Fold this protein.
Amino acid sequence: MRKPNGFGSIKKLSGNRRRPYVYVISRQDGKREAVAYFTNQTEAEIFQIEYVKEHHHRSLPGHKITFAELFYRWLPVHFRSSCKSNRMRKSNRFCIVYVQQSPWLPADK
């Protein structure tokens, strides 16, 4: 079965080796990097799944997220990181209140 993009790959190296299976990922610059070596393919697949869970922090492919959900997850993080002065904090507080009262958002928020 094929794995999704960005999942990395498991390869069997040639020759007589103690650990012939390698888990390989692609770096941001396009080069491939060996992460770990394994004695059998099952161990490599278990490690691959754990590695992706720990390092990618993405939702599952079947999960549908709305733009409103994404916006409400992003908004507090953005305002916390962009508050450099007292003036900006006041304007950000006003913006949060304004967005929460806006009529185009779902009723459950």
